[in-house]
Amino acid sequence: MRYNEKELQALSRQPAELAAELGMRGPKKGSVVKRRLVKLVVNFLFYFRTDEAEPVGALLLEHCRITQEEPSGFSISFIEDPERKYHFECCSEEQCQEWMGALRRASYEFMRRSLIFYRNEIQKMTGKDPLEQFGISEEARFQLSGLKA
Amino acid sequence: MKLNERSVAHYALSNSPADHMGFLRTWGGPGTPPTPSGTGRRCWFVLKGNLLFSFESREGRAPLGLVVLEGCTVELAEAPVPEEFAFAICFDAPGVRPHLLAADGPAAQEAWVKALSRASFGYMRLVVRELESQLHDARQSLALHRHSSWKAIPSRCKPQAPDHLSRGLENGYALSRDCSSIGLAEEGGSRPAGSGLAECELQGPTNLLLGRGQSPVSPETSCFSTLHDWYGQEILKLRQGWLQRARGSQPECEEQDRP
């Protein structure tokens, strides 16, 4: 699949929702923990060698599962292969919870569901569609089902 | 730079909602010259969120390409591009060439430009935050009205599963204070839905009975067919049903249906 690396590199330089140095271990068997600067930008998780400006890699955070891993770490896996995990080690339980919460909310799909929920709640309460004032109530992205691919 | 391509491709092919799709001619393929020439390559494009995928055909089993729609603007393409109905995705980042695309007609061109312009994560986040704040305000004002117009309906019922909601209301359901989700309508500075949905409002006629994660449209709920049923209801009808039943009939109880 072709994608523009420069695009992603530029994205990795954008303001992050969260950024920290964490221990990271790839999904392959026998991989070791490495210190990485991990940066959450929109629905991508970038990871850098601690002294480098360009990311080593990126993870798109759609259809992923965040699981707590003892002692104070978490893993990210994806729906099509749940056993294949990217492991992260935090310095405290608090940091771990902070990251897990942020990553669970990081997907576009999560935002979409939130929006639909709020839209519906407001409509129930006020009898009005809150998106009408913006002229976007008919947009596919704000509908319950969107378009099926 | 590495990317979890297999997962990305899986997401592209999954039945998660697509925001737009259609045939477009593209000049971004491999081996294409730096300036667009020729008629381009006709591909099937699918927009999901802030990701634009291209496929060789509608039935393509793997995406050909991905454009991440962050830090970009979408503009109608200017001359001397000879293509009709062309538009370009232009990136702020230096060294990233605009991505030239052409639709089949003016309506398709307009629809694509609109859809792509609103594709960024930031745009969605803005709308979500706006609605979140509106919901907070609506709940506060509802809570103010609640006390004056309703008295407590004693009941020990558990929160309803979404697809029983309408029946539930007709039978005069009410949530007891013991319901698994906590508390009252007022929720200062509510977090984005997911952590903030655990609310059950006692007796409010328009605040339907929602347990944690039980809302048909909470982000934790995944049963969209249920959501469709639920949306079909008229608000006023629900309110009327509630009013009637609350005055007289016996509340029934039903097991909470965990998703």
Automatic annotation (TrEMBL), chain A:
PH domain span: 15-108
A Pfam family: PH
InterPro entries the record matches: Boi1/Boi2-like, PH-like_dom_sf, PH_domain
GO CC annotations, alphabetized: cytosol; early endosome; recycling endosome; trans-Golgi network
Single GO biological process annotation from the record: receptor recycling
PANTHER family linked to this entry: PLECKSTRIN HOMOLOGY DOMAIN-CONTAINING FAMILY J MEMBER 1, SESQUIPEDALIAN
Annotated protein name in UniProt: Pleckstrin homology domain-containing family J member 1
Organism of this sequence: Rhinolophus ferrumequinum (Greater horseshoe bat)
TrEMBL record, chain B:
Residue span(s) of domain PH: 17-121
Keyword Aminoacyl-tRNA synthetase: no
Annotated GO MF terms: protein homodimerization activity
Any single Pfam family the record assigns to this protein: PH
Record-level GO BP terms: endosome organization; receptor recycling; retrograde transport, endosome to Golgi
Keyword list, A-Z: Coiled coil, Cytoplasmic vesicle, Endosome, Golgi apparatus, Phosphoprotein
Chief location of this protein within or outside the cell: other
Subcellular location: Early endosome; Recycling endosome; Golgi apparatus, trans-Golgi network; Cytoplasmic vesicle, Clathrin-coated vesicle
Recorded GO CC terms: clathrin-coated vesicle; cytosol; early endosome; recycling endosome; trans-Golgi network
Family the entry assigns: Belongs to the sesquipedalian family.
Function per UniProt: Plays a role in endocytic trafficking. Required for receptor recycling from endosomes, both to the trans-Golgi network and the plasma membrane.
Oligomer and partners: Forms homodimers and heterodimers with PHETA1. Interacts with OCRL and INPP5B. Forms homodimers and heterodimers with PHETA. Interacts with OCRL and INPP5B.
PANTHER family on file: SESQUIPEDALIAN, SESQUIPEDALIAN-2
Protein name: Sesquipedalian
Organism this protein belongs to: Rhinolophus ferrumequinum (Greater horseshoe bat)
Name of the coding gene: PHETA2
